[in-house]
Every structure is written in C-alpha cells, then in structure tokens.
Write a structure and sequence with these properties.
Helix content is about 80%, strand content about 0%. Helix 9 packs parallel to helix 11, helix 10 runs antiparallel to helix 11 and helix 14 crosses helix 15. The model has no long low-confidence stretch (mean pLDDT about 85). The protein is built from 15 helices and no strands. By secondary structure, it is mainly alpha-helical. It has a domain of about 110 residues: Serine Threonine Protein Phosphatase 5, Tetratricopeptide repeat (Alpha Horseshoe), CATH 1.25.40.10. This is Tetratricopeptide repeat protein. It holds the Pfam family TPR_10. InterPro entries: TPR-4, TPR-like_helical_dom_sf. Keywords: Membrane, Transmembrane, Transmembrane helix.
C-alpha cells in the first residue's frame, strides 16, 4: 500500500499543475502536456527499444533483436529485466563472453534478489557455453544454498545431469520434482535422468506427462524416442524422432542436429525395409 502512495501523489500533483497551466492559458496547458509526454517517452525509451527487440526475436530476426536490445541496454536508465534480456540474446547469438560481462555488471548493480538469482542462472549458462562447466555448476550450487525456487531447481538439475554424476543428479531432480512437479524443465530433467540411467520404465510415465506440455525444443522428443526404442516400441519411437527433426535444439545441449538426423534416418529406413519385406511376402 505504501508503495502506491508516492506514485499516486505524483499523479495528483501533475494533474493539479496541468489544471493551473490551462487556467493560465490553453496553449500553456497543451504545451505542458506535450513536454510531459516527451519526458515520459524519453525516460521509457529503453522499454520501447526492448519491446521492438522482443517482437523481432519472436519473428526469428535475431540480428535485428540484438540491435534493439543493445539500444535498450545503452539507454539510461535501463531496467534490470532488459539487461537480462540482452544477456540472454547475446548467448543465443553465440557471444557468451559479452553476455558474461553484461550479466556480471547487473549482478553487482542490482538491489533485487530475484533479479540477481535470474542473472546468476543465466551467467552460469554463459560459463557453460564457454566451456567453463565447473564454474557454471559451482555458481548454481552457491545460488541454491541461498535461494531455492523453480528456476534454480530446473537449471541446476540439468547442469548436474550434463556434468555426468547421474546418481547425484537423480537425488537432486527427485527433490526438485517434489518441489514443483508441474514445471516443464524439472519434469524434463527427471525423465532424462532416469533414461540416461537406463531406467526406461521409470522414465516412460514422465516422458508421457512431458509430451502433454508440448516441449519447444528437440531434445525431449529425441530422448523419448530412445526410451521408446529401449521398450521395443519402434513405431512410437519413429513418430517422436520425426517430431524432433522439426524442432530447434536448445542452446545448452549435449547432442547435435546430425545425431538426430542420423537416428531418424536409421529408424525410418528400418521401418521402410520392414514394410517392403511384408509387401514382398504377400506378393
């Protein structure tokens, strides 16, 4: 309630000033309004630039998005959320070094704990993309000691899987699932964790639940296809690998596009050969 009092008093004061200006002269009133609008546009230009950049990113125009987010970043004042957005775009465009600088500056400057945590999670990703995997994992573990939320559980759970200690990762991802079983990233992590441990039966219901959320990236479909193959469900596996072919890879991933293409080719070829044998047999 107290946070609303100051902006409310400011609005009232502006209204009073505008009324006084109009009483003095109509042109004075309109002139004051134009000045106030100009000031508002100037002080909010960072958000305007970021909005244009976000729309460009949504259209897949990465370079255009970067240009506008850089404008937002260099405009003062620049809200923390736009600085995080700029760092994220830098990583997506293949410049994690510059992203590290942007996010590092934000972590030192921000007074918001939530902003700091989000920036630290992104910074850990920037480390990982530079090959500094241990630094990324350690940073997330330090964040987790101080602050536990869905974002941290999801990011750290995935990093633990990528780091290779699958049993340690499983204990953590089970804890994360208890914390928020409805989160897509946490659910994805646990399904993947079980799959990589060779526990296909445990992974299967989690993958099924995950597919209901229609994951954006290719990896869940790729791993689900593998899990289905382990259970002898080849037709379903082919269906999932073909979906993976149509999806983009996330930018923190241990697999490549060629791996997906190769596996899809092999599965589809096997299915085609199977159909041909059946056809010839009938002939």
């Amino acid at each position: 309630m107290k946070a609303l009092i100051k902006p409310l008093l400011l609005i009232i004061a502006l209204i009073i000033v505008i009324i006084i200006a109009f009483n003095l002269h109509v042109l004075a009133g309109w002139g004051l309004i134009l000045v106030l609008v100009g000031v508002m546009l100037f002080t909010s230009r960072s958000s305007i630039y970021a909005l244009i950049g976000s729309r460009a990113f949504a259209k897949g125009e990465m370079q255009k998005a970067l240009v506008w987010y850089k404008k937002a970043f260099t405009s003062k004042p620049c809200p923390d959320k736009h600085r995080i957005g700029y760092g994220y775009l830098l990583m997506r465009s293949g410049d994690p070094v510059q992203a590290e600088q942007v996010l590092g500056q934000l972590i030192k400057a921000t007074k918001s704990r939530d902003t700091r945590v989000q920036a630290q999670c992104n910074l850990a990703t920037a480390y990982w993309l530079q090959g500094k995997k241990s630094e990324g994992l350690i940073l997330l573990e330090q964040v987790f000691e101080e602050y536990k939320n869905t974002l941290v559980y999801g990011n750290l759970g995935y990093f633990k899987i990528l780091h290779g200690d699958l049993n340690e990762a499983l204990a953590f991802n089970l804890e994360a699932y208890t914390y928020n079983e409805g989160d897509l990233t946490i659910l994805d992590n646990l399904a993947l964790n079980y799959h990589l441990l060779g526990q296909a039966d445990e992974a299967q219901p989690l993958f099924e639940k995950l597919m209901l959320k229609t994951p954006k990236y290719a990896e869940p479909y790729y791993y689900y296809s593998q899990n289905l193959q382990q259970q002898g469900k080849r037709e379903e596996a082919i269906e999932q690998i073909n979906v993976a072919l149509k999806k983009e890879l996330s930018f923190v991933t241990p697999i490549t596009r060629s791996q997906i293409e190769q596996e899809a080719e092999e599965l589809n070829k096997e299915e085609l050969n199977k159909v041909e044998k059946i056809t010839l047999g009938k002939g």
